[in-house]
Amino acid sequence: VTWMYRKYNNKKVYDKYRKRWVIQKIDVYSNVELSIPYIPFESMQQMVDVTKTRAIKDDLCGTLTISLFLGDEFSVQMNSREFKKNFNPLLLNTVLTCRHHYISLYYTAQRFAHVDALLRQVTSYVVDCNKLWRYVRNYHYDAWEMENATNVMLLKPIRRKCWFATNKEFAKYNTLACVDNM
Fold first, then answer.
1. Whether 65 contacts 102, CB under 8 Å
2. Which of its termini does the chain have fewer beta carbons within 10 Å around, N or C?
């Protein structure tokens, strides 16, 4: 998320709906402290609210706003015993059609199967991360295959990536911060 913010914020892009060049703005909503400007992600209602106000704000400012929602430990946050109250129909519709509202949801979980079933069903891909000291290995999987696999060990990754995490990487977020309840 920090990489996307630094790369794409304040870039000139062509808005195909308004048929003109505009400045792209990236709004980051996060429930953990980041090294970039962010808005505290405290409720899923914020995602619904963005869909209602983004177009008006963009028309007034001559911008195109992309909203990135980052939820750390979402399996705990969204998988409560009161699951019927987790997702109202408007929120579910927003999550299902978020690409129409220029919204992306990124979330972390200890286990993909522990995330609420409705969120798993609208997930595009899963990144399995393992770290040994500072060597980070990421395997990317199709979420539908991950959800429907009888044995996830037999799944073949779509993409593999390995990299060395530097102090700069660790400085992008507060690794010791506790995640507040949403």
1. yes
2. C
pTM: 0.85
Q: Which of 59, 55, 63, 70 is nearest to 9 (CA)?
A: 63
Name the helix (H) or strand (E) containing 126.
strand 125-132
User: pLDDT per residue over 28-81, tens digit each?
Assistant: 999 889 999 999 998 888 988 998 898 899 999 999 999 999 988 887 766 555
Alpha carbon 76 to its chain's center:
16
Structure tokens at 167: 């102090």
CA 137/CA 131 separation, integer angstroms: 6
Q: Which H or E element spans position 131?
A: strand 125-132
Mean pLDDT of 125-152: 92
Segment 2-5 long-range contacts (CB within 8 Å, at least 24 positions apart): 2/34, 2/35, 2/36, 2/172, 2/173, 4/68, 5/36, 5/37, 5/68
Q: Could you tell me if 107 and 74 are in contact, meaning their C-beta atoms sit under 8 angstroms apart?
A: yes
Q: Are 42 and 179 in contact (CB under 8 A)?
A: no
